[in-house]
């Protein structure tokens, strides 16, 4: 009963926030970038909550549970490259460029810098495809949590979550996303930090983690895979439109600068708490390991938090999933209507954002109804959405913001990154062995970089 009450109250608060900001989101600029009036604390929290979904809590904890201290390179990269460097290297520049060109989306910024509507449409289409694939996996995770708590089948739970998220995004646009992200970020950080603190008290303090042994034998731990995941969960942030677009909302470049430390602190709390909880789980669950490593963090929560604490923690996991999914809904809706179709209407944006979430949910539910082996293959392709989007945008965003500009290089590297990422995803789903399959993100970025440099040099010679 406690879990039901906590989650029901949280969902109701999210919907209320969306309704509260409806009037402020009646213009295109209000709907897409919150009229560029977001302050430093809100910017830091909405960035962090969008960055870290339930994956970092449940899956990140599982990685630490399986691989032990070798996995701690991932939170280091998350804090330094994913938060600090993103704000310092890109944040202020992106905010300034978006103002100079009066751009409201990432594809539109490229379209205006390179004077190309076609480029804007291409990048809008890539955004819509990649993020819809990724949204399907995020919704599945949120639905699993709600379905478990309320004893609903996965399809029903998925559509309830989707309608609620789509509702508050469609009502308040970026305003509701920013404020619900802040609420979700507070719940997420508090929940995972509490789990770590209580777990550490059970094993004798943080020093005891040094003796925690990974659940996998050392010979089964793959350092290349761990390094690739560290890059994927940190450097990828530089090319994800739903995160890059956050810098558009700040009142000024100075706001971005002032938010840098807050964002890094948020990243530190969430990612280190998740991974260190995974190490604690390896110690506390040693004599009674869960059947699946992905159950390590939920099992730990049930063990150490009690009914009330477990209810709050389940709300934290759900908040982490929703704070990512709602941003994806807004970004996908704008990519289809605003960037690809060129429609400038808040009503169309509301409808598109709503439908984007429902469509992703329908895809997720349809996949879950497939035979298990086929469903696993399709889900693998969905997870490629993060890599596909980052692969398409990372080099173009970084090079353009830093001043190395070439429209031909942007198009070539975006296509190369997206195709490489998709090829690895399909190959993995079909169980086809490709070279360096355990470093697919690294290969994707190297391929995109090589193509960008080649195209850039070719255009300079002309």
Q: How many structural domains?
A: 2
Number of helices: 16
Overall CATH architecture of the largest domain:
Up-down Bundle
H/E element string?
A: HHHHHHHHHHHHHHHH
How far is it from the N-terminal to the C-terminal residue, by CA? 69 Å
Q: Looking at this structure, what is the CATH superfamily of the largest domain?
A: Sodium/glucose cotransporter
> Into which percentage range does the β-strand content fall?
under 5%
- Number-wise, the strands total 0
Description:
By secondary structure, this protein is mostly helical. It folds into two domains: 2-369, Up-down Bundle (Sodium/glucose cotransporter); 371-462, no CATH class. The chain is 78% helix and 0% strand. It contains 16 helices and no strands. Helix 7 (117-150) crosses helix 8 and helix 7 packs across helix 14 (372-402). The longest helix has 50 residues, at 154-203. The protein is globular. The termini are far apart.
Write the layout of secondary structure elements.
Layout: H1 2-20, H2 28-33, H3 40-51, H4 54-67, H5 73-100, H6 106-113, H7 117-150, H8 154-203, H9 223-232, H10 241-244, H11 253-284, H12 296-340, H13 346-368, H14 372-402, H15 407-429, H16 440-461
Helix pairs in contact: 1-8, 1-12, 3-8, 3-11, 3-12, 4-11, 4-12, 5-9, 5-11, 6-7, 7-8, 7-12, 7-13, 7-14, 7-15, 8-11, 8-12, 8-13, 11-12, 12-13, 14-15, 14-16, 15-16
């Amino acid at each position: 009963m406690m879990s039901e009450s906590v989650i029901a109250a949280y969902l109701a608060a999210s919907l209320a926030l969306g309704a509260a900001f409806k009037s402020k989101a009646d213009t295109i600029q209000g709907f897409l970038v919150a009229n560029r009036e977001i302050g430093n604390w809100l910017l830091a929290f909405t960035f962090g909550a969008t960055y870290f979904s339930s994956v970092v809590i449940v899956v990140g904890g599982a990685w630490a549970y399986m691989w032990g201290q070798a996995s701690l390179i991932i939170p280091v990269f998350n804090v330094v490259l994913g938060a600090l460097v993103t704000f310092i290297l890109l944040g202020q520049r992106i905010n300034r460029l978006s103002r100079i060109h009066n751009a409201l989306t990432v594809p539109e910024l490229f379209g205006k810098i390179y004077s190309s509507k076609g480029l804007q449409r291409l990048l809008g289409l890539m955004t819509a495809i990649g993020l819809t694939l990724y949204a399907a996996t995020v919704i599945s995770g949120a639905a699993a949590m709600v379905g478990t708590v309320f004893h609903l089948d996965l399809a029903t739970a998925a559509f309830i979550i989707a309608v609620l998220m789509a509702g508050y995004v469609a009502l308040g646009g970026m305003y509701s996303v920013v404020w619900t992200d802040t609420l979700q970020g507070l719940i997420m950080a508090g929940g995972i930090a509490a789990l770590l603190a209580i777990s550490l008290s059970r094993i004798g303090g943080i020093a005891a983690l040094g003796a925690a042994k990974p659940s996998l034998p050392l010979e089964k731990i793959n350092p290349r895979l761990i390094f690739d995941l560290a890059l994927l969960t940190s450097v990828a942030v530089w090319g994800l439109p739903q995160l890059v677009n956050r810098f558009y909302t700040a009142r000024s470049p100075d706001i971005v600068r002032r938010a840098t430390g807050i964002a890094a602190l948020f990243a530190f709390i969430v990612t280190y708490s998740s991974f260190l909880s995974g190490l604690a789980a390896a110690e506390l669950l040693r004599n009674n390991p869960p059947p699946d490593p992905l159950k390590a963090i939920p099992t730990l929560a049930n063990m150490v938090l009690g009914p009330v604490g477990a209810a709050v923690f389940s709300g934290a996991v759900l908040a982490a999933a929703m704070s990512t999914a709602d941003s994806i809904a807004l970004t996908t809706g704008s990519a289809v209507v605003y960037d690809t179709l060129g429609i400038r209407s808040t009503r169309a944006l509301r409808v598109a954002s709503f439908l984007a979430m429902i469509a992703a949910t329908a895809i997720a539910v349809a996949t879950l109804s497939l035979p298990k082996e086929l469903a696993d293959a399709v889900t693998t392709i969905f997870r490629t959405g993060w890599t596909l989007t980052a692969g398409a945008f990372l080099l173009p965003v970084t090079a353009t913001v830093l001043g190395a500009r070439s429209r031909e290089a942007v198009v070539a590297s975006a296509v190369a990154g997206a195709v490489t990422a998709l090829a690895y995803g399909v190959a993995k789903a079909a169980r086809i062995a490709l070279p360096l399959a355990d470093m697919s993100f690294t290969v994707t970025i190297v391929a995109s970089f090589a193509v960008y440099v080649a195209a850039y040099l070719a255009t300079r010679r002309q």
